[in-house]
Amino acid sequence: MRPKKNPQKDLNKKSGMFFVIGLLLVLGMVYTALEWKSFESFKEYEVAFNKTDESIDEEIPVFELEVTPPPKPPVLPTEIEIIEDDDPIEETEVIAIEVNTETEVVDASDFEVIEEEEEVKVIWSTIEEVPVFPGCENEKDKRACFNEMMQKHIRKNFRYPKLAQEMNIEGRVNTTFMINNDGTIGTIRKRGPHDVLEKEAVRILSKLPKMTPGKQRGSAVKVSFAIPITFKLQ
What keywords are annotated for this sequence in UniProt (predicted)? Predict the structure, then answer.
């Protein structure tokens, strides 16, 4: 006859629960081991309580540096130039002027004062009587005739510089020249895109003929005239 087991004493009945509890414990230990952090302990030292040993006496070595003085500049011997008596020596004669009782006193009225007339310069747009270009003496509108003759003169003497053609240089040169009070051509000023074109513009204007000078209040004056010269390649 086999003895019967007591169901309350059966250990296999709670084996599943014990397995789960053991698994949780193992997982908790593994997690704690992985997340464990350790820090070094920080120790504070009180510096105020440190006392130096007065018996220790340190001497700081002293270094002496010798500076070499700069060399003295050489003393050049004084050169003495000997001049012979035969050499001619030019001397400046100084005439002393002394005033005495016989000196004649000159009156200021004895001197003639020459007043130089101030040179008047007038621009083309404000001149009363414009300069007359040769060939416009009998024209009624001398301003229009002057402009027309200027254009003819430029076309007649115009030459396109070869260097400007080779370098493909073109543009407008603004020129200003002065018609003096004797009818001659004075200072020529120019401003253009290149020196080659400026020189050609000056050459053209320098060939202008002598004109009848312009007048302001009946007196011949200098008159400035501005004209642009255009250089354009075909």
Answer: Cell inner membrane, Cell membrane, Membrane, Protein transport, Transmembrane, Transmembrane helix, Transport
For residue 225 the two structure tokens come to 């005239």
Q: What is the dihedral of CA 40, 46, 47, 51, to 10 degrees?
A: -120
d(CA 3, CA 1): 7
Q: What is the pLDDT of residues 77-97, one digit of tens each?
A: 545 454 555 555 555 555 556
> What whole-number distance in Å separates Cα of residue 198 and Cα of residue 234?
19
Residue 120 CA to residue 102 CA, distance in Å, equals: 48
pTM beyond 0.85: the answer is no
Tell whether the model's pLDDT for residue 14 goes beyond 90: no
Residue 41: count of CB within 10 angstroms of its CB = 5
Confidence bin at 15 (pLDDT 50/70/90):
confident
Instruction: Look up residue 105 and give its two tokens.
Output: 């006193």
For the domain covering 121-231, report its CATH number. Answer: 3.30.2420
Angstrom distance (rounded) from CA 65 to CA 43 = 47
Which element (helix H / strand E) includes 150?
Answer: helix 142-157
Q: How far apart are CA 76 and CA 96, in angstroms?
A: 42
Angle at 228 (CA atoms; ends 192, 187), nearest 5 degrees: 80
Q: Which residue has the tokens 């209040």?
A: 217
